[in-house]
What does this fold into?
Amino acid sequence: MIAAVLLFPVISSTLIEPYVLAIYGVTALMAQANVAIMLLMMTLLLVLPISFLLFRRSAKHLPAYMGGRPATPDLHFAGSLGLTREAQTRNYYLTEYFGEAKLFLPGAVICTVLILVSWALAGVAL
Amino acid sequence: MTWTWLIGAVLFLVLAPIAGGLIAGIDRRITARMQGRVGPPLLQPFYDVGKLFEKESVVVTTAQNFYVLAYLIFIALSGALFFAGGDLLLIIFAFTLAHVFLVLGAYAAHSPYSHIGAERELIQLMAYEPMIILAAVGLYMVTNSFYVAEIAVSTIPAILYLPGVFLGFVTILTIKLRKSPFDISTSHHAHQEIVKGITTEFSGSTLAQVEIAHWYENIFLLGFVYLFFAWNPVIGIVAVAVTYLAEIFIDNATARVRWQAALKSGWLAAVLGIVNLAILAYILAYMMTGGA
It folds into this structure.
């Protein structure tokens, strides 16, 4: 997996480009400089975790900030009168934007149209 | 073989924090004047960051420092690629990657406040990302190049072809500069929130790194604004200054909106950009067929 990531320029030039060239007659190559920069960025990503060693010694560990009042270790807010309240976080599902109810009708219409168009084009080709 | 690109990158890495800090200082002065205050000394941002570096290193988890360092390095890298005249698409990729590190850093802290900040930062990312890519596409359609070096020396007045794209870009610039009304993940102003959003758990030298990354980021973004006016350097620099002043004014004249409104504004900006590009594509095709 990691080898596949690191060797992507080689894979691209030996396996993918001849195929694309054979099918379409043209290929769009990434600029050599950009490939070099991306490899550089990847190397940086692999090197950066070494910085962990730098931090491990010096940093002082404290519990997370819980609104200025001392919290329990398992992230409960310390409330008044000795109460503790659990801190809850939930994901944002953005159903208003990507919800099934929003996406179903346009999705169905577009898919139907695409299928009909492909049939029509296939009919023309025959 | 020209080595001028290296000069651009090195100059950015060295000078951008200085210029960014100065701009932050000027920003704070102007903001203060708009609010009827005298404001801090011009060099106050440098004093602040200098003081942060002297503070004790305090963390919730060790990993958060690593993520913030990665954020700083990738922001600096994307800016350096930009000023080296590199490929805009690659620059935007590195820029986005940098913010993913900041978000991971905030998540790593396991704190409710920084979690909310991180979620809001992701929403911001979703809001501005389409528009920033459309801006690159628009500049490509006008200048036929994704390379900053070629766009910057183009003699075509890109702004005249891309007014909608520019307006959209200025809208998301408000998000990126962390200015009101879109400073939803963290703000420069104390009145906007009690807890500091995504930077809640960052302190000392780590917070200083976030601030320096923000200076780098601002210079990069102002450079992006310049590209729209690159055919005339004088107009370009004036336009960058006017754009930033307008952002300061908007910052002081508006209150923070809900994240839903920020997301919709970002996408509305993108729609504006797409409409602009569609009209531009039509005009370019018309010119190509010799209709004009």
Chain A has a mean pLDDT of 79.
